[in-house]
Structure formats: C-alpha cells, structure tokens
Amino acid sequence: MKRGFSILAVVTALLLSFALYEALIGAPTERTMGDVQRIFYYHVPSAWTAFLLFLINFVASVVYLVRRSAEADIVALVSAEVGVVFCTVVLITGPIWARPVWGIWWTWDIRLTLTLVLWLIYVSYLVLRRFSTSSQTSLLAAVLAVFGALDVPLVYFSIWFFRTQHPSPVMGDGGSLDPRMLHVLLINWAAFLCLAWLVCWTRYRLEVLKREVEEAQAMESLLEPTR
Amino acid sequence: MNPVHYLYAAYVATWPIHGAYLTILWRKYSRIRREMAKLKRS
User: ipTM of this predicted complex?
Assistant: First the structure.
C-alpha cells in the first residue's frame, strides 16, 4: 500500500512537471488570444476533474442511501472535498483569463453562474458535514449531494443549450481544437487526475484513521466510570 | 498589464489553493496522531 502510494506520488510529480512544460512551452500559441490562452491547460482539466469528483460523490451518496455503507460515506466526503478544491481553481483561473480577453473579471453568464452555484452547493455540503451534530448528518449530506449533482450536467451542457459568453466547446461536435493543443490538454488532465487520486487516497486514509480514533475515544469514555 | 502576467498569475494562483488544502490535511493528520498518542497513554 505504502509502495503504491510512493509510486503514484513520483508519477504525479513527474507528470505535473511535464504537463507544466508542455502547457507553457510545448503547446502552440493561439492566434487571437496569444499566450494568455495557455491558462486553458489548467482551467479546463481542473473543471473536468471537479466534475468527475462530484460524479463520484453522487454515486457514493446513492450507494450510502441504499446500503448505509461507511466506506461509501467516506468516499462521498473525500470526493466532495477534493472536488471543491479543483472547482476553486476553476473559479480563480477563469476570471484571470477573462480579464485580458473579455475586458472584465466576471459576468453573470449562465455557465459562470452555474459553476459558482455548483461550488456553493458543495461548500454547503462540506459545512453541513463539518458542523452538524445530528446522528443523521451522513444521510442529510447524501440527500443534498444527490440534488447538488443535478447542477453538474447543467454546467457541462450549458454552453450547448444556451447562448453564452463562455467559449464554445473545443472538443466533440463543433470543436476545432488543434491536435497539438488537445494533446497538451489531455496530458494536463492526466496529471490533475493523478494529483486528485493521490489527494483522495490520503484524505480517505485520514478519515478512516479519524473515525477509528473517535470510536476508541467513545469506548474509553464508556469504560471510564467503571474504573 | 501585459497579458503574459495574467498567464503567470493563473498558474501561480493554482498551487497555493492545492497547497492550502494539503496543509489542512497535514494539520488534521498531526491532530489525529496526537489523539492516538493520548489514547495509547491512557
């Protein structure tokens, strides 16, 4: 287990370094936006990683609602937490790109607004889990996660369904991304996925340890009066 | 401001966010280890 973690950590570090080099130097310069377009190689993979983590949170929450499995509950918590971190990166890098390209930091465009709502939903999910003292916290959080996940496809498909200021899809139908740019984009996504996996792994182990300690403390407090 | 500065700002802004989260995890781990040590002593 420890060896697997070390291997993943090394692979992640190497991949992140290579992806950074490719994004800043290897990828061709975009004709109209120039170098500022390179923000795309951090912004888009962070968004895809956040969406994937929120999807995992949704599946784990459904599993928890059906089976009341502690493992599913931990997976839901971990994926939401790491997903919020990646979504924060999206919300920070987006306006930094928008300022030189659009001339404004932020606009209440449908995709931007829905992404902010998505972030707020998962932040409230984490706040609920952190501060609720109810024995039903995991259940309430799972229900909130199931409803919150509805926003993920809305964010993703909003640029297909609505006229927005946000750039059109660069892949799939109507996408016209240069193959070299696509290559760099996918390398960066692979690097961010490795990072997300590494952080989720660490967080999962930490949560298991925390619950074991809490259980031991509860046992100790039960035994205390008899001493 | 030169557009390249925005590029650097975006790349530089990303890592403190991940770094801050990893710091939170590290502090959580240290607290759990302290509690484990306390449990072992008692």
Answer: 0.91
